[in-house]
Amino acid sequence: MNLLLVCLGNICRSPMAEGALRARLQASPFADRVRVDSAGTGDWHVGEPPDRRAIACARGFGVDIGAQRARQLQAQDFHDFDWLLCADSANVREARQRAPAGLGDKVVLLLDWSGVKPGGEVPDPYTGSAEDFRQVWRLVDSAAQAVVARLATP
Ligand code: 4NP
User: Fold this and answer.
1) CA of 41 to the centre of ligand 1 (A)
2) Phi, psi of 109 (to 5 degrees)
3) How far apart are the C-alpha atoms of 125 and 2, rounded to whole Å?
4) How confident is the model at residue 44 (pLDDT cuts 50, 70, 90)?
5) Longest Cα pair distance anywhere in the chain, in angstroms?
6) What are the two backbone dihedrals, phi and then psi, of residue 67, each rounded to the nearest 5 degrees?
7) Would the CB of 95 count as within 6 Å of ligand 1?
8) Ligand 1 centre from 59 Cα, in Å?
9) Beta-sheet pairing, 107-109 with 83-86
10) Is 114 in the pocket of ligand 1 (CB under 6 A)?
11) Of 26, 19, 83, 77, which is closest to residue 51 (Cα–Cα)?
12) How many angstroms separate the CA atoms of 151 and 25, rounded?
């Protein structure tokens, strides 16, 4: 299964979600069954590492996301990935607008799809505090655990 985490800038929420999911998969028997990547609907930060506050937050939870580099969502992603898991509903709208014909249904909300919270969104921490980043981590890590638990269910 190929999973693409999507947010706006690809420097805060989706890199943290990618890191959390990678870490939970690596600690599970399913690491080789899932490919994980992330992308942003916007292009402002392409080529940059995650926001330093996101890197510091992830490090505080024992996960190194410093080697990630931001990229923008591409049309090819809709072919390459089974699901595009979005942080919020604006990301869902943006991504669906760019979906090649027939592939828009691959775009869903991460917290909804994972079963963490129906219709739930991961709030943008970009203008927020360190505590806002920690709250993002807790949300995306809950989703990561739920994805792994689903893989474990026959
Ligand atoms: P992200 O946060 O979507 O979680 O990566 C943001 C990062 C950058 C911007 C907005 C949100 N920005 O406007 O540059």
Assistant:
1) 10
2) -85, 130
3) 26
4) very high
5) 41
6) -85, -10
7) no
8) 19
9) parallel
10) no
11) 19
12) 10
pLDDT of residue 154: 80
Please give the average per-residue pLDDT across 36-49, as a whole number: 98
Q: What are 47-97's pLDDT values in tens digits?
A: 999 999 999 999 999 999 999 999 999 999 999 999 999 999 999 999 999
Q: What's CA 135's distance to the chain center, in Å?
A: 14
- List the structure tokens of 20: 């959390």
Catalytic positions:
7, 13, 124
pLDDT, tens digit, for every residue of 97-120? 999 999 999 999 999 999 999 999
38 Cβ inside 6 Å of ligand 1: no
94 lines ligand 1 (CB under 6 A): no
What does the pLDDT read at residue 114?
98
What does pTM read for this prediction?
A: 0.97
Ligand 1 pocket test, pick from 5, 10, 12 with the greatest ligand atom count within 8 Å of Cβ, gives 12
Q: How many other CB atoms sit within 10 Å of the CB of residue 79?
A: 11
